[in-house]
Specification:
Blueprint lengths: L1 H19 L8 H12 L3 H13 L6 H13 L3 H14 L4 H15 L2 H14 L4 H13 L3 H14 L7 H12 L3 H11 L7 H14 L2 H17 L3 H12 L3 H17 L41 E8 L4 E4 L1 H4 L5 E5 L4 E8 L9 E5 L22 E6 L3 H4 L5 E9 L9 E4 L11 E4 L4 E8 L2 H8 L7 E5 H7 L16 H8 L3 E6 L1
Antiparallel strand pairs: 1-2, 1-12, 2-5, 3-4, 3-12, 4-5, 6-7, 6-9, 7-8, 8-11, 9-10, 10-11
Helix pairs in contact: 1-3, 1-14, 2-3, 2-4, 3-4, 4-5, 4-6, 5-6, 6-7, 6-8, 7-8, 8-9, 8-10, 10-11, 10-12, 11-12, 12-13, 13-14
């Protein structure tokens, strides 16, 4: 299955090479719309065919063709190459500069360069106030900055502008944003409202399948994603069809459900012991002056065994780049663990160190090759949480579904200084956690780690097994518990009066937040 997808991508890249070296004039307006619609419907197969035909009859690569090539590369998750073609389009034609800048914004988002993306999106909207991609880009940017109210404004503007579009492109991006930030019911509502007067295409059916999977409606998710795979195949989109089939065949559903139940049960059964010791050397590390580090233009690949189940989570770098802090349940019983930081660099894990208190859901991953020291947090940047303080959680939620390699950031406050059932050593927060967030850092406004993301309680499971109906409960392990685990003194005071907003936390802390893949 994976070989088929690889072969398909190789074929497409060969076709693109042929297109960009074939002389051509501009593509007429109608042909441009047809090809653009195919790309927005994720039907890159047919888009390639049409672009090849239209490019063959002309003489040189025009700005409109460059925009389309850029969009195709973007759909194939090749943002660096996409960026190059969007950049060429902005120089080659004033008429297509708005589309070029919007494409540069979307490419920069995928590469993690949010500040650049913001500037490009604003340029696109300045040239064309009705730029759908420009407004969607701003929505995605402010989502990643942890400012959902601002993001919402731009999404809704994009929907109004794109209301006549039958392929539901803006709807899909908007719904996907809700899904990514832990609101599948809102995502589903957005789609169902749009389908009141529009027919669903394969992309929308596929997204509904993803939503049902996250909601725990496994049978319905498989039914919808199987249907979308057939629909993609019927329209000639073998790439998407094979991609979905590959996903379906690698999901061990029963195992997933068992893991979720064990996690919730573990939260309820924990005792109140906070006696955490580990056989490590106490380290004194000078505080690193933090500066903005740009991510790699393309992240290093993580190689996995497609015959084995894959688990993902989050973590963060400490001890001068030598260690990763995460949750024990993220990597327990795994034999092969790889991490990739927010700049795109990968490292392998040599060994795992667990706390002596078996009820404590923490672990240290020791790397075979340390990350650079300036990408590491220090123990002086870990502090005790305070009720009511504003916090930001960073991590890689729902990565296997949404496939993004940039960390996300979500903001909230610490609502209670104890866990579920008044459990000490944990705290509750209003920032929403999703599968994949586990093990990631919880920062306060001073840029200090005040906790480690733990879990979101399964409301359906608790109601069914315990007869308890709860609202959303998002839990984190307290920073002082982490310090105790590391044999470090508790930091009750912040050394900095500097306060950061979500965009600044994201810029400065991104290098230290890692994506964890274990098998």
């Amino acid at each position: 299955m994976h070989k088929t997808i690889f072969k398909f991508i190789s074929t497409i890249l060969t076709v693109i090479f042929f297109i960009i070296h074939t002389p051509s004039y501009g593509i007429n307006k109608n042909d441009y719309k047809v090809i653009n619609d195919l790309i927005e419907e994720e039907n890159v197969d047919e888009a390639f065919k049409q672009l090849k035909i239209k490019s063959n009859i002309n003489r040189h690569l025009s700005a409109d063709a460059q925009v389309l090539v850029g969009k195709i590369y973007l759909a194939l998750e090749k943002p660096v190459k996409a960026f190059n073609y969007f950049e060429k389009a902005t120089f080659n034609s004033v008429a297509f500069a708005d589309k070029g800048y919007a494409g540069l914004a979307l490419s920069s988002i995928k590469m993690g360069n949010l500040n650049d993306a913001h500037n490009y999106a604003l340029k696109a909207i300045k040239l064309n106030p009705d730029s759908v991609d420009g407004k969607l880009a701003l929505g995605l940017i402010f989502d990643d900055y942890g400012q959902p109210d601002v993001a919402e404004k731009y999404y809704k503007q994009a929907l109004i502008t794109d209301s006549a579009n039958k392929n539901l492109y803006a709807i899909r991006v908007y719904a996907n944003s809700k899904l990514r930030y832990g609101n599948p019911s809102k995502a589903k509502k957005i789609i169902m409202n749009a389908l009141f007067d529009k027919k669903p295409n394969a992309s929308i059916i596929d997204l509904l399948g993803k939503i049902n999977w996250i909601e725990g409606n496994i049978d319905e998710a498989i039914k919808l994603r199987t249907k979308s795979s057939r629909m993609f195949k019927d329209t000639g989109n073998s790439f998407k069809s094979e991609q979905i089939l590959s996903w379906l065949t690698t999901k061990d559903i029963n195992k997933k459900l068992n893991i979720e139940e064990k996690k919730v049960d573990k939260v309820n059964k924990k005792n109140n012991k906070n006696n955490v010791l580990i056989d490590v050397t106490k380290t004194k590390i000078k505080k690193v002056h933090r500066r903005v580090l740009k991510p790699d233009s393309e992240p290093e690949k993580i190689i996995i065994d497609s015959n084995k189940e894959v688990f993902t989570g989050s973590g963060f770098i400490i001890n001068q780049g030598k260690w990763i802090v995460t949750n024990k349940h993220v990597i327990k019983k795994s034999k092969n663990i790889v991490v990739r930081n927010g700049l795109g660099k990968t490292r392998k894990v040599n060994k795992i160190r667990y706390p002596k208190n078996k009820n404590l859901d923490l672990a240290i991953l020791v790397l075979n090759n340390p990350f650079p020291k300036n990408e590491s947090l220090t123990t002086k940047e870990i502090a005790k949480p305070k009720v009511g303080e504003k916090i930001f959680i960073m991590g890689y939620p729902i990565s296997s579904i949404l496939g993004r390699y940039n960390p996300s950031i979500t903001q909230g406050i610490i609502s209670k200084n104890s866990g579920f059932g008044e459990l000490p050593g944990e705290f509750q927060m209003t920032a929403t956690l999703n599968v994949g967030n586990s093990g990631g850092p919880v920062f306060n406004q001073n840029g200090l780690v005040v906790g480690v993301s733990l879990a979101k309680l399964d409301k359906k499971f608790l109601l069914k097994q315990k007869g308890i109906l709860v609202q959303d409960v998002n839990l984190a392990i307290s920073g002082d518990v982490l310090l105790s685990f590391l044999n470090e003194p508790i930091n009750n005071k912040s050394n900095s009066v500097q306060k950061y907003d979500a965009s600044e936390i994201y810029k400065y802390m991104r290098p230290s937040v890692v994506f964890i893949v274990s098998q």
